[in-house]
Amino acid sequence: MRGFLRGEFKQQVGATFLRQVIGLALAIGSSAIIARWLGREGKGIVALASLLPGMLALFLSAGIGAANVYFAGSRRLSVASLSANSMAFAVLGSIAGTVIVVVMAVSGGLRRLVPGVPIELVLVGMLSLPLSLVSNYFRTILTGLRRIIPLHIVGVCLDGTLLLLTFL
User: Fold this and answer.
1) pLDDT digits over 85-98, tens only?
2) CB count, 10 Å around CB of 36?
3) Of 97, 158, 155, 159, which Cα lies nearest the Cα of 127?
4) Could you give the C-alpha distances from 4 to 1, 13, 118, 143, in angstroms and in order?
5) 24 burial class (0-12, 13-18, 19+ CB within 10 angstroms)?
6) 94 CB contacts (<8 Å, ≥6 apart)?
């Protein structure tokens, strides 16, 4: 038990806590800006428009993240190989997600799925799908390599980017 909170473990726990606090602050800031500029109804519309790309990213990730953690951690595949495969799957997932949304938009299913949300806003929200897939895949590679501090730095950068995009 002696030395339990020393060295690398202590740094990683501290970095995780700090990342969560910073992420929470950035999320609250982004939410407050959206609510202030758009009001309650506008904030709800933005939430619905971003829900579809988020769910598609979840479904189209196809378990690649878990595989990346396993193969990076076991060193059975090189980081270069994992990165190349991740990029290929991110491109394929983005294309599949775009096709799904276009088919839903043309068939009218999109209006039933996200009622009251302009289709153009959903399409703009879909621009986040490739970034979401790529960032998730590369964060899982960092997780498998046990590179916790760089993992959190990437997470904070993504949260900061979302806050900056809120101003656009």
Assistant:
1) 999 999 999 999 99
2) 10
3) 97
4) 5, 12, 54, 21
5) exposed
6) 129, 130, 133
The counts of H helices and E strands in the chain are: 7, 0
Q: What is the mean pLDDT of the chain?
A: 89
Q: Provide DSSP, 22-72.
A: HHHHHHHHHHHHHHHHHHHHHHHHHHHHHHHHHHHHHHHTTTHHHHHHHHH
CA 7 – CA 75 distance, rounded (Å): 24
HSE, side-chain direction, 13 A CA sphere, residue 69: 9
- Under-70 pLDDT residues of the chain: 1-6, 168
Which structure tokens are listed for 24?
């929470």
Backbone angles phi and psi of 2, in degrees to 5: -65, 135
pLDDT digits (tens, 9 = 90+) for 121-143: 888 889 889 989 999 999 999 99
119 closest CA partner among 34, 37, 49:
49
Q: Which two tokens stand for residue 114?
A: 């996200």
